[in-house]
Amino acid sequence: MPFSVEFFPPKDEAAEARLWRAVRTFERLGPAFVSMTYGAGGSTRDRTVRITGQLAAQTTLLPVAHLTAVNHSIEELRALVGAYADQGITNILALRGDPPGNPLGEWTKHPDGVEYAEQLVRLIDDLGDFHVGVASFPEGHHRAIDLDHDTRTLVDKLRAGAEYSITQMFFDVDDYLRLRDRVARADPEQGNKPVIPGIMPITSLASVRRMTELSGSVIPPDVQERFAAAAGDGPEEDREAVRAVGIDFATEIAERLIAEGAPCLHFCSLNFAKATSEVLERLGVDMTSVLPVASAAR
Ligand SMILES: Cc1cc2nc3c(=O)[nH]c(=O)nc-3n(C[C@H](O)[C@H](O)[C@H](O)COP(=O)(O)OP(=O)(O)OC[C@H]3O[C@@H](n4cnc5c(N)ncnc54)[C@H](O)[C@@H]3O)c2cc1C
């Protein structure tokens, strides 16, 4: 089963060392691609560009660079795409991005920038031979008027030249299947393009609460109960128990997605390899090459 992995730009040297440990582990597992998110501030943006370049130059991995329209003029966006091309990076995930500071706050376009991701897709396509992906939202984007509007947005981005979409993480596989059906109904041709499901193996309740607050996603009550039972009612959540349920839950979601013909599983790794590797192992991915004992014996 093809899988891919999402990283984010690390904040300091220790975090960068951790990222590279995860990168080297995943490298041995053979993901279809790895992607690097793009933040809101100047220094994190520089790190995205630098590390994505290093992934292209120093690993066997295929990097996909996320790029957002936040606080960028069209000229700057063009320069960034050019900087990626100079490093041999031709895969870009074109996103509008969220308002810095408060993702659910008011969106303001840069005066010389673009308003929607669809325009960014066209801008990148016009600059050369790039492979562009976009974001999709199984529960609908929190700013979309309704699911029809959300579907139209996605179809427009695909018609503009995007070759695939990667979904926001979700908790109910039916939401993913309904999204796929909506796109296929709205435009059968665009519906043939891969909708790659985003999966995050949950290892702590606090982090998942934060992620859902930021994205506006909803955790279904039965899933909430399952994690709450694992967390216990002590002053601190039982991290081991939550992690175990998180790995089980991600594996169950992945198994159903594979059965439903998902084209690839995209794991939000949070720059750790362990949880995702455990899910992949349960899915039957050959892990022998990542075990030090096995590699030493070869
Ligand atoms: C897989 C994935 C990766 C992500 N990576 C990053 C990242 O690296 N950095 C980051 O900052 N954020 C990232 N995000 C978050 C993303 O930037 C936000 O969710 C953002 O709010 C929406 O981006 P978009 O590209 O879908 O925007 P768009 O497709 O432009 O949509 C934004 C809103 O505008 C509406 N809209 C679009 N077109 C029109 C139109 N013509 N008329 C009226 N309304 C319209 C849409 O319905 C939607 O509500 C990611 C999201 C996903 C799913």
UniProtKB/TrEMBL annotation:
Task: Write the Enzyme Commission number(s) for this entry.
Answer: 1.5.1.54
**Which pathway, metabolic or otherwise, does it act in?**
One-carbon metabolism; tetrahydrofolate interconversion; Amino-acid biosynthesis; L-methionine biosynthesis via de novo pathway
Required co-factors: FAD
GO annotation (BP), single: methionine biosynthetic process
Which branch of life, at top level? Bacteria
* Matching InterPro entries: FAD-linked_oxidoreductase-like, Mehydrof_redctse-like, MTHF_reductase_bac
Q: Which UniProt keywords apply?
A: Amino-acid biosynthesis, FAD, Flavoprotein, Methionine biosynthesis, NAD, Oxidoreductase
**What is this protein called in UniProt?**
Methylenetetrahydrofolate reductase
Source species of the chain:
Gordonia insulae
